[in-house]
Amino acid sequence: MAKYARSGVEVHVCTVTDGAGGTYDPDLLKTSGATTLAELRRRELECACRVLGAQLWMLHYRDSGMPGSPDNFHPASLFQAPMDEVVAEMVRVIRKVRPHVVITHEFSGGYNHPDHVKTSQAVYRAFQLASDGTYCSSSQTYDVWQPARLYHLVVPRSTIRWFAVLLWLRGKDPRRFGANSDIDLTRLGVPDRQIHVRLQLDKYLEIKQQASACHHSQGGGTMHWPSFLGRRAMASEHFIQVLPPGARRHRDLFEGMEEVP
């Protein structure tokens, strides 16, 4: 986002839930001046978007928490929301923003977070429906729009493997990763051969770290590895082009697209 914003591209971020189902340090909430975790998470997102140069959009759903948690059953959670309703919200945002490139989670949600999985599914459907003039014609106030490409942001399996080895060497179990030890890193990542775009982002690393630092309630971008390895991991990002299908490897998310106003 920092790279493209500083290249003259209009960058938008749409977050679907409020983060209210996450774990946090109660003392941090007291010192922040926020009255709820959702308010604190919103402030952190606004801070990160200012650093990156992106415009923030927020939908109204509550964080569903990790699989099997009580937050899954909160009536306002994304997990409980009808898929058609979520898709309609996504179509509304796409038609209003009119993006040429859309990026979302991979279908597994990265680490099987229910909200990431549902968001990925909803964005996939909305990408296809946003250009359908018969879809939601009575309730949508924006003209139809067809984005050119849909990408999934992914982590290469090779990266996951060397990170898992580092955790083993430091006496930590990569099968029980995260604040709640509920993430099995050995089951994550995508085969490297499936990746279409690898962006090298060394020159934007400081901006990326500043944006990460905005998220105090989630660790502020701190890593579970030595700092030089953390910098290496953050200095590149990887993407799979999902739509249109049949893409070959390319160097940039916009490569081969005609120039647009």
Label this structure with key terms.
Rossmann fold, 4-stranded mixed β-sheet, alpha/beta, 6 strands
If you had to describe this structure to a student in words, what would you say it looks like?
With 261 residues, the protein is α/β, with parallel strands linked by helices. It has a domain at 2-154 and 192-202 and 239-243: Rossmann fold (3-Layer(aba) Sandwich), CATH 3.40.50.10320. The protein has 8 helices and 6 strands. The chain has helices spanning 2-5, 26-32, 37-52, 83-97, 114-129, 157-169, 205-213, 227-234, and strands at residues 12-17, 55-61, 101-105, 149-154, 197-200, 236-243. The strands form 2 sheets. Strands 3-4-6-5 form a 4-stranded mixed sheet. Helix 5 links the parallel strand 3 (101-105) and strand 4 (149-154). Helix 3 (37-52) runs antiparallel to helix 7 (205-213). The longest helix has 16 residues, at 37-52. The two termini are 19 Å apart. The mean pLDDT is 89.
Q: How is this fold's topology laid out?
A:
Elements: H1 2-5, E1 12-17, H2 26-32, H3 37-52, E2 55-61, H4 83-97, E3 101-105, H5 114-129, E4 149-154, H6 157-169, E5 197-200, H7 205-213, H8 227-234, E6 236-243
Helix pairs in contact: 3-7, 4-5
